[in-house]
Design a protein that fits this description.
The structure is a single chain. The protein is an alpha/beta fold. It has twelve helices and ten strands. The strands form two sheets. It has a seven-stranded parallel β-sheet with strand order 3-2-1-4-5-6-9, with helices on both faces. Helix 4 runs parallel beside helix 5 and helix 9 runs antiparallel to helix 10.
């Protein structure tokens, strides 16, 4: 049995579905407050449900019973963040440490932890939490795999951060000239599933990016070619991001500003060898742009 924590999230949900489609026994840890439609869809896909919370150690013990592998993808930010209640300290640090303890006690033999790229390495709360938990995972005594994806296309090439293909506008952090290996969340999910059965992933830290490193300005150009119209580009200076991080009043604000500063610095990740090792065809920015633009209504003349 494989336990997926963060099963209603963007990547965790996809991991559950891919495992179930392969006939793997998979259990999803969901909170009592999880979206009922999302939970039902996972049930319909053949995923076993268990109700629990990273902040409730007793529920983690029950969730880990009879489990051979744990895949941890949960995070407090951005959607469930509540300072002092469900935040980086309570969920991403204390909660995952409780999960590690429960997994080790239950005899779990493989722990997979979703961190993020080594290139995201400035001083901010989420980065510091990820690196702390990586060390805990390595010291857990369990066979482990630490996955380090870079910038998700579905987030950083989307309206959520100012990249709006529907309106042909793009906010760029920094000068936009530093390459980033944008990765699709679907590719992250597929690589995760394959790591569970590939011995080369045991006790390994795996950097995960897309098939090419494009600068943000190059990514805009790809979208312009696909959409057939120019984008209006605005820039957020690095100095403004530093000031934003310093002025933020909570860990989520500080972490978002820190991530945008990392974006400005770039995050190229060589992926040829990893793609060959795990047999994955990675999604290009152009393929993502084509899929995105195909869903958009035609521009108003």
């Amino acid at each position: 049995m494989i336990l997926v924590v963060g099963a209603t999230g963007l990547v965790g949900n996809d991991i559950c579905r891919r495992l179930a489609a392969r006939g793997e026994p998979v259990r999803a840890l969901v909170r009592a407050s999880s979206n009922p439609a999302t939970v039902q869809a996972l049930k319909d896909a053949g995923v076993e449900m268990v109700v629990g919370d990273l902040r409730d150690p007793a529920s983690l013990e029950a969730a880990c019973a009879g489990v051979s592998a744990v895949v941890e993808t949960a995070a407090a930010m951005p959607f469930a963040f509540a300072a002092g209640v469900n935040d980086i300290n309570t969920t991403d640090i204390a909660g995952v440490e409780s999960l590690l303890q429960a997994a080790a006690t239950a005899g779990v033999t493989h722990f997979v932890y979703m961190s993020f790229s080594r290139g995201l390495d400035l001083d901010f709360p989420l980065r510091n939490a990820k690196r702390r938990i990586e060390a805990r995972v390595r010291d857990s005594g369990m066979t482990h795999t630490i996955l380090r994806p870079g910038f998700f296309m579905e987030v950083w090439l989307s309206p959520a951060v100012g990249f709006d293909a529907a309106n042909a506008t793009a906010a760029i952090y920094g000068d936009g000239r530093s390459p980033i290996s944008w990765i699709s969340t679907g590719d992250v999910a597929e690589l995760t599933v394959r790591c569970l059965r590939n011995p080369l992933a045991r006790n390994a830290t795996i950097e995960m990016g897309g098939p090419e490193a494009l600068t943000p300005l190059e990514a805009v150009h790809v979208f312009e070619e696909v959409a057939g119209r120019p984008f209006t580009v605005s820039h957020v200076p690095v100095e403004a991001l530093v000031a934003q991080q310093q002025a933020a009043t909570d860990d989520m604000g500080r972490s978002f500003a820190g991530l945008m500063r990392c974006y400005a610095q770039g995050d190229p990740i060589p992926m040829d060898e990893t793609a060959r090792t795990f047999g994955v065809d990675l999604t290009s920015v152009r393929a993502f742009a084509e899929a995105t633009c195909a869903k958009l209504p035609p521009p108003v003349a």
